[in-house]
């Protein structure tokens, strides 16, 4: 069962759906119940996947002053769980159900300086923050990381709006980011906001702790579809109930368990809150922890996992993987 919040749903109409890169589309919506949008806000969207309505979250990239028009940008990756194809297929005039803007990743105005770090599609959460900091003449810089220039959405806008405050690290151009150097350049009172893949986020969190920087000054949002290993099929079993099901590469353990009839607790579905934690009774394979809830020490253990994002992978190529759990 999902945790409940006072979320207001409304209808939104699609007014544009245009490509930004080969894999990212910008979708513009008009809201039936407009609300002013704060930097760092996102929308939850009801999309139809395999004939059934499901819920996905997308950062609001920009919005009109009154919030009547909002834009999100959606990446179609190999790790998609069905939301991206459904969003990419929307046509002008289509109507969908969305929430009012939700702020789980707020920008605090008033710090001496800021670093905004975006990895790939994580720029969708960072772009509005950069514009807000520019508008108040804050001391900030934007660090944008990607594999290739063609994959960097909103690059022209960032260059035009932020100039030499923008720092690019592009893998195939030989300018990959050194996380220790980045964190080492951060002042003791600087606030760093980041959004991107788990590997990047984990590296920053480790380096942040190693350098003794203030934990409250590191703020982040993640998306739970990236991990240390490619998503592979594995089996999950709950011995107490006799339930057993296969988790396919394109679905999460949480989704597979619910589809098999298990009554699960969850909330964020992004590996941030820990409500979906399950205890591991036995394991054949290894856990690919994709959450940002556990500490590094906790991730070294194999006694528990966040089933909304984390997976089990075989220890040998071509092998099988199985986990027996007790649901919390």
Sheet-strand content, in percent, reads 25-35%
Low-pLDDT ranges:
none
Spatial ordering of strands, largest sheet: 1-2-5-4-3-6
DSSP strand count: 18
Order of helices and strands: EEEEEHEEHEHEHEHEEEHEEHEEE
Helix content: 10-25%
Helix/strand/pairing category: alpha/beta
- CA(first)-CA(last) distance: 12 Å
Descriptive account of the structure:
The protein is of the alpha/beta class and 328 residues long. It contains seven helices and 18 strands. It has helices spanning 83-88, 123-135, 155-162, 179-184, 198-210, 253-259, 296-300; strands spanning 9-19, 24-31, 42-49, 52-63, 69-75, 95-99, 114-119, 140-146, 166-170, 191-196, 218-222, 234-238, 243-247, 277-284, 286-288, 304-306, 311-313, 322-327. The strands form four sheets. Strands 1-2-5-4-3-6 form a six-stranded antiparallel β-barrel. The protein has a five-stranded parallel beta sheet with strand order 9-8-7-10-11, with helices on both faces. Strands 13-12-18-14-16 form a five-stranded mixed beta sheet, covered by helices on one side. A hairpin with a 2-residue loop joins strand 3 and strand 4. It is globular. The relative contact order is 0.12.
List the helices and strands and how they pair.
Layout: E1 9-19, E2 24-31, E3 42-49, E4 52-63, E5 69-75, H1 83-88, E6 95-99, E7 114-119, H2 123-135, E8 140-146, H3 155-162, E9 166-170, H4 179-184, E10 191-196, H5 198-210, E11 218-222, E12 234-238, E13 243-247, H6 253-259, E14 277-284, E15 286-288, H7 296-300, E16 304-306, E17 311-313, E18 322-327
Parallel strand pairs: 7-8, 7-10, 8-9, 10-11, 12-18
Antiparallel strand pairs: 1-2, 1-6, 2-5, 3-4, 3-6, 4-5, 12-13, 14-16, 14-18, 15-17
């Amino acid at each position: 069962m999902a945790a409940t919040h006072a979320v207001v749903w409304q209808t939104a109409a699609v007014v544009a759906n245009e490509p930004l890169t080969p894999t990212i589309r910008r979708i513009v919506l008009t809201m039936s119940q407009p609300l002013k949008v704060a930097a760092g806000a996102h929308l939850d969207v009801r999309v139809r996947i395999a004939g059934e309505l499901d819920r996905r979250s997308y950062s609001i990239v920009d919005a009109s002053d009154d919030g009547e028009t909002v834009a999100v940008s959606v990446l179609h990756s190999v790790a998609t769980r069905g939301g991206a194809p459904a969003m990419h297929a929307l046509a002008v005039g289509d109507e969908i159900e969305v929430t009012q803007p939700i702020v789980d990743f707020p920008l605090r105005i008033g710090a001496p300086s800021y670093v905004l770090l975006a990895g790939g599609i994580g720029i969708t959460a960072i772009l509005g923050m950069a514009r807000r900091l520019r508008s108040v003449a804050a001391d900030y810089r934007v660090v944008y990381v990607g594999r290739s220039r063609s994959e960097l959405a909103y690059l022209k806008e960032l260059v035009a709006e932020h100039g030499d405050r923008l720092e690019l690290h592009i893998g195939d151009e030989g300018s990959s980011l050194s996380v220790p150097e980045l964190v080492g350049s951060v002042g003791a009172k600087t606030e760093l906001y980041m959004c991107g893949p788990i590997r990047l986020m984990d590296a920053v969190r480790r380096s942040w702790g190693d350098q003794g920087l203030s934990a409250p000054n590191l703020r982040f949002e993640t998306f739970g579809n990236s991990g240390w290993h490619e998503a592979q099929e594995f089996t999950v079993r709950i011995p107490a109930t006799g339930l057993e099901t296969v988790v396919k590469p394109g679905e999460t353990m949480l989704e597979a368990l619910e589809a098999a009839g298990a009554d699960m607790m969850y909330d964020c579905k992004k590996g941030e809150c820990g409500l979906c934690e399950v205890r591991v009774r036995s394991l054949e394979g290894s856990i690919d922890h994709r959450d940002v809830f556990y500490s590094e020490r906790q991730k070294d253990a194999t006694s528990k996992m966040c089933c909304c994002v984390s997976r089990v992978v075989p220890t040998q190529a071509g092998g099988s993987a199985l986990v027996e759990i007790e649901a919390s």
